[in-house]
Structures are given as structure tokens and as C-alpha cells.
Amino acid sequence: MDIKTLLAEKARDFKLEILVGKDGLDRKILVSEMNKPGLAIAGFFEHFPYERLQIIGIIEHTYLKHLSYDEQLKVLNKIFSHEKSVGCILTRNLEPTEAMLKTFADLNVPLLSTQLRSSIFMGDLGYYLNERLAPSIKIHAVMTNVYGLGVLIIGKSAIGKSECAIELVKRGHKFVADDVVNIRKRSGRVLVGSGLEVTKHLIEIRGIGIIDVKDLFGVGNILDESKIELVIRLEDWGNSKNYDRVDRVGLDESYIEYLGVKIPEVVVPVAPGRNLAVLVETASLNQRIKNKGCFTARDLDVRLQKEINKNSL
């Protein structure tokens, strides 16, 4: 994203206005971190993060004003003439010095102003940039939230993902997205799933068409996004896998990776008479107790081994 996008999306919320450097609004913001250039203004440039948005608060502003006009020009040019420089934001509605106005105008680097205090502004802007710049992918899937657990349902077309989601909604769970799920990686290696804006709250049911989950079932049955904590893969029972010979106890744990983050995966074979919604509910509850350290299959295996060892004595 660029400075122009930041202004278009957040000028009102962040009380931002452009002072000078309008020709540089296409400069790219590539990182969510910001920097207060106090040490650089004082003359220390080692490891200076030129690629970050620079935030000048009351301390940096006061120090700059103690420098002569020529000294201000020298230090500001050294900071913002770098090819990676993005822009600068003055907080607390601080008045730019003459040297600042000249520097940013000559370099075509955007100089913005906000009414907010530095600490509040940097917190809000950091959260926005983390969301906006988060790595993301789009996959064919259905996203739900079952018993407070974010569940991504994947599988080939027409296998029953959307019908399963509708049944889950009828049973009181939350619907997030159908068909295309946007997965974003937030800080802390957390994956979040959401739908596309154009198809928000909509779901396609073959034979019926497009329905609006919010209108039919109420606003209490939808979420705009949800953390992804479990992946349910629906497969035809009649595929090449012999489900009578695979691990039926649940000792073997499987994972799927998105954006470098591994998520627990459960493969559910689909066959006539199987209630997919109930199976997804059960898998979700089972994953919740696993997250709390209770692994039923493993506990059973330990008990069986103890029983076998006792009987062999």
C-alpha cells in the first residue's frame, strides 16, 4: 500500500492531513513498524530504519527547533533523501518548521499531520498497518466458528461444504465465509479467515441459489472474520483410501500449512447417512480439549499399554 491509500482509508479516523509532498503520495509503505527519529536528529544514524514511517512527536520537534535552520536542513535531508524513505507524520498538530516545509517539498516526500498524541496514534496506526500489510492467500473453502473455535472446511467442489455450513448455522454456530476464504497471517503466527467484501455473509446452496445468512438467520449467526484453529477436510468415502485400515483411534495427528503456519487437520470421509455438521461439532470440541492438554486417544493408549504390561507379568 502507499501513502495515498493510507489517507483514503484512515484520514478521518486518524485525523490526518497532508501538509507538503503531495507528489510523493505513491511512496510505498512496506513494513508496519514505525520509527521516532530522535537519535537520528541528534546525529546518530547507525542501523537507521529508513523504510519505516517516521513519527515526529513533541520531543523530536522541540529538539529540532533548537537547531539552526541550516542544521535542520542537513539532518532532515540525511533522513528523508534516502531512496527507501516513505514519509513523516507530525503528531499533536505540531507546526512544521520552515526547514521541514522546504525539505519535504524539495524531496517530494509526504509530510502529514495528526491531532493525536504519539503514543495513541502509533498504537492505532500500528494495528491498522499490521492488518493491511499482513501476508495473505485466498483458498476455496468455507469458514465457520464452532463452539468458539475457528474451523476451515475444505474439500472438492460439490462435496457438501456449504450444506454443512448451513446446518452448523441452524445449530447455533457462526458463519464467516463461503467459496473463497481470505487467509491472513497476523503477528504471533496467527491465521485469520474472512470472506470477500463483495460476497460477505452470502452462501451458495446448489438447487436453491445464493442466500444471505445474515438476513435468513440473523446477525447473531455471522462473524466478519475468525481465527483459524482447525481444518476439516471432507473426502469421498469411496476414494482410494481404505478408511477401515487407517488410524481409527485418532493417535496420528495431521497438520496442514498455510503461510508457514501449521494448523491441525482432520479428514472426514463423506458418505450417505453421515451427519457432517455433528461430525464437525465433535471434531471441534475434541480439538478444544486437545488445546487444553487432554488427548483422549493418547490417554487410552497409555491405559492399554499399562494393562498389557500388567497381564504379561
What does this structure look like?
The protein is α/β, with parallel strands linked by helices and 313 residues long. It folds into 2 domains: 130 residues, HprK N-terminal domain-like (Udp-n-acetylmuramoylalanyl-d-glutamate--2,6- Diaminopimelate Ligase, Chain: A, domain 1, 3-Layer(aba) Sandwich); 167 residues, 3-Layer(aba) Sandwich (Rossmann fold). Helices cover 34% and strands 27% of the residues. It contains 10 helices and 17 strands. A 6-stranded mixed β-sheet has the order 9-7-8-15-17-16. A hairpin with a 2-residue loop joins strand 7 and strand 8. Helix 7 crosses helix 9. The longest helix has 16 residues. The protein is elongated, with a radius of gyration of 27 Å. The chain starts with a helix and ends with a helix. The mean pLDDT is 91.
Explain briefly what this protein structure is.
The chain is of the alpha/beta class and 313 residues long. The chain has ten helices and 17 strands.
Keywords, separated by commas or semicolons:
313 residues, alpha/beta, Udp-n-acetylmuramoylalanyl-d-glutamate--2,6- Diaminopimelate Ligase, Chain: A, domain 1, Rossmann fold, 2 domains, 6-stranded mixed sheet, 5-stranded mixed sheet, 17 strands, 27% strand
CATH superfamily (homologous) name of the largest domain: P-loop containing nucleotide triphosphate hydrolases
Query: What is the 3D form?
Result: elongated
Radius of gyration over C-alpha positions, nearest whole angstrom: 27 Å
Q: What number of structural domains do the residues give?
A: 2
Number of helices: 10
N-to-C CA distance? 69 Å
Total number of beta strands:
17
The largest sheet is:
6 strands, mixed
Q: Which regions are unreliable across 5 or more consecutive residues at pLDDT < 50? A: none
| CATH class placement of the largest domain | Alpha Beta
- Binned strand content: 25-35%
Query: Taking all residues together, what is the mean pLDDT?
Result: 91
Helix/strand/pairing category: alpha/beta
CATH architecture of the largest domain: 3-Layer(aba) Sandwich
Q: What is the topology, as strand order, of the major beta sheet?
A: 9-7-8-15-17-16
